[in-house]
Write a structure and sequence with these properties.
The chain is mostly helical and about 150 residues long. Helix content is about 40%, strand content about 10%.
Length: about 150
Amino acid sequence: MTVRIRAHHLLCMLTYVGKGYSGAFTANFDKIVERLGNGEDLILVTGPDDICAPLLADKNEHCFGQSVVERDENAARAVETLLGRPMRPGERFSLDGEWLARMRKAFAAGATRQPCEGCEWHDLCTEIAGKAYQNTRLAIEAPKPRP
């Protein structure tokens, strides 16, 4: 399977420590970072994604809001600039340890933080990045040797 991810969640997953909007949200996010850490591919999508899923029963949820759409657009540009590869809806890729280290370094340095302005989690994410991403839940397993 493939995990559906909106662009700004590429940044959110860097600092995810198990806090979120509800118990269902964090349980779902835990499963997603585990899947990604185990090598499952992701595809960039427009609008609500697999991380948003527990919140989507409420059509007034922020996941549908214009500010989040703008955050996605800004995140896509920031990540695209950093990685030098397209970050548009429909792009498929998998994460690896090099990707995670590069993204976290840029995030901690502020290079990809502009999309996070106005986010309610901004201060928490700043604190986590400042503490070298201690207790974050996204871990990328090393590739398994082929027989």
